[in-house]
Amino acid sequence: MSEQGGHQGLAKGALSALESTIMGIAGTSPAFTVAVTTGTIYAAIGPLSVGSLLYSGVIMLGIMFAFAKLNRVMPDAGAAFAWVGKVFGPTWGFFAGWGLMVASVVFMVSATLPAATATLLLLAPAEVENTPLVTAIAAVWLTLVTWIVLRGIKHASTAQVIVTVIEAVIVVALLGAAVVWFGGHPAHVPSAAWIAPGSFTFKSFADGAIVSVFFYWGWDVTMNLGEETEPEDASKGAFWAMINLIVFFVILMTVVLIALSDKEIAEANTNVLYAISAKIFPAPWSYLVVLATVLSTVGALETQILQFSRSMFSMARAGVLHPRYAAVHREWQTPWAATLVIWGLGLVLLFAASYMPSVAAILESSIEAIGLQICFYMGLTGYASAWHFRDLLRTDLREAFTHVVMPLIGALFMTSVAAWVIPTFSPIVLTVGIGGLALGFIPLSIGWWRNRQGGVAAA
C-alpha cells in the first residue's frame, strides 16, 4: 500500500503560486475566524481590535519573511521543525514541529465544532446547543475532510479553491451590503482612535495580540507544502496571502463594528457574521453567510490536516518520530499514516471536549491555548532566520532587513506576547497550551531511545 519517504516521496511541484496563495488565505479561514473570534478580541480590547489586527498583521509579516526565506534555501515539508533543527539543534527543532502539531490537533475542536453548529443552524436551528449532536456532526466533517486530503494534494487544492471562491463571494457581498445599510447610522462611528498607536497600553496591545495571532495563523501551510510547490512559488504564495489577509481582516473588523452594537457582538457569540446578515437580509438569504462560515471552516480544517501530516511525515523521515509515520501512499502521494493520526486524535479530542459545559467554553479555551503554541513555534522560526542569515548584516543591509531584522522583530513580538499573557491564563488554557507542549518530551525521549538502540544494534 505504501512505502516510506526514501522510496516514495510527495508530489513534487504539484501546486502553482496561485494555488499556494489560496491555500495560505484559506488556511486562516477568514469567515470562520471572524465569526468565532471577534467576540473574544472585542471583549478583551473593544474597538481597538481594528488596530490590533493591523499592527499584529504587519509584525506577522516578519515571521512570514522568516518562513519564506528559509524555505527558499531549505524547502522541507516539516518547515519550522526542519529549519529550527538545522539552526539550533534537533531538540529545539523537534519542539518547533511539536508545537505546530499540538496546535493543529487542538484546532480540531476550534474548527469542527463551529462547522457543526453552523450546519445545525441551517438544518435544525433548535439543536444548536445540543452538544452531543454538535460533536457527532463535527466528527462527520472531520472524517470527510480527512478523506479529501488523503486522496492527494491536487484533490485538496481543487476543493480548497472551490470553497474559498464561494466563501469570498458571499463575504464580500455581505461587506458591501453592510456598508450601504449601516453607513449612515453606524453602531460604532469609525474613529482614527481605533488604530492610533497612542490608544494602546502595553496590556491592551498584548491582550489583543494573543487573539490576533490566532486570526492570522494558518497561512504557513504554504511552507509545509514546500516540497509539493516550487520554492519560489511557495514563498510568493505566503507573501500574497499575508497581504490579502491584513487588508481583509482590518476591513472586516471595521464593518463588524459599524454594523453591530456591543450587546449584539456579545450575544452573537460564534455567529457574528450571521448576526450582521440577519439584520440586512430576510431568510433564507441571511443563511448564505452561514454557508460561507461552514465552507471557511472546512477549508481551515483541510489546511491544518495538511500541516500536521506534513510535519509528522518530515519528523518521521528524519528519524525523530517512528518511521511508520513517513509512509506515503503509492498512488495518492500523501503521507497517509500521519494523516490518519490527526484524524484519530481529532476524534478523541472532540468527544472528550463534549463533556465541557458548553461549546463556547471549548472554543474560548482552544483559541487562547492555540495562540500560545503559535507564538512558540513561529517565534522559534523567526529567531532561526535571524541567526541563520546574520552575516547579511555585514554584507547586504537590504537583504538583511527581510532575512534578519523583520524576522527578529516578529520573534520578539511572539515571545513578549506569550510571556505577558501566560500569567493571565486559566488552568484549562495552561493545561492545553503548555501541557500540550510538555507532552512532547515523551515522544522525544522514545525517539532518543529508539535511535540509540538502532545505533547499538548497528554497531
UniProtKB/TrEMBL annotation:
Keywords: Cell membrane, Membrane, Transmembrane, Transmembrane helix
A Pfam family the protein falls into: AA_permease_2
Transmembrane segments: 21-45, 51-70, 91-113, 133-150, 162-182, 194-217, 238-260, 280-301, 340-363, 369-389, 401-422, 428-449
GO MF term list: transmembrane transporter activity
Cellular compartments annotated: Cell membrane
GO cellular component: plasma membrane
InterPro entries: AA/rel_permease1, APC_superfamily
Coarse class of the protein's main subcellular location: membrane
Membrane topology (UniProt): Multi-pass membrane protein
Organism domain of life: Bacteria
PANTHER family: AMINO ACID TRANSPORTER-RELATED, MEMBRANE PROTEIN
The protein's name: Putative amino acid permease
Organism of origin: Novosphingobium sediminis
